[in-house]
Amino acid sequence: MDTRKDKILEQFQDHEDRIIPEKDIETYEFLYDALEKSPDAGFSLGFSHQIIRKIEAKQQRKVTVKLYSLAAVLIAMTLGFSAVFFSEEQCAILFSMILKYKFVVIFLLSAVSLIQIGTRIFSTRELEN
After folding, report:
1. Of 3, 81, 92, 94, which is the most exposed, with the fewest CB atoms less than 10 Å away?
2. How big is the CA angle at 128 (ends 50 and 115), to the nearest 5 degrees?
């Protein structure tokens, strides 16, 4: 017996009580040889998952851009219609109200902007990993 077979037989505690078929020993030898070899130089095992994640993220970004574009068009239309239907006096009242609560408006705008920027930064870091 060679040392490879001895190592395989040592793993079975009661190898003296039972006979291990030669096919099983050959199978274990093949398995151990395959496990001892280093993987071929090439793509990593998680390469396909990384590509799939990047493709899904790119598709998600396309959908997000479409939704933002739609929202921008709707907001522009709303502002246009509201400018037509509001009188000058109503616009003055609205503008004075914005000036009165300018800190709240600035806080809300900055909070939304920071959330958007943070989401974009974290999603790009996630794609790099």
Report:
1. 3
2. 115
Tokens of 12: 């079975």
Q: Half-sphere exposure of residue 71, counting CA atoms within 13 Å on the CB side? A: 6
Amino acid identity of 115? I
Distance separating alpha carbons of residues 32 and 2, to the nearest angstrom: 14
Distance CA 76, CA 67 (A): 14
Residue with tokens 């502002």: 79
pTM, rounded to two decimals: 0.38
For 112, the token pair is 């939304």
Q: Where do we find the tokens 């790119």?
A: 58
Average pLDDT over the chain, rounded to an integer:
80
- DSSP state string for 85-127: HS-HHHHHHHHHHHHHTHHHHHHHHHHHHHHHHHHHHHHHHHH
Q: Read off the pLDDT of residues 58-103 as tens digits, 9 standing for 90 and up.
A: 999 999 999 999 999 999 999 888 778 878 888 888 889 989 999 9
User: Residue 29 in contact with residue 8, Cβ under 8 Å?
Assistant: yes
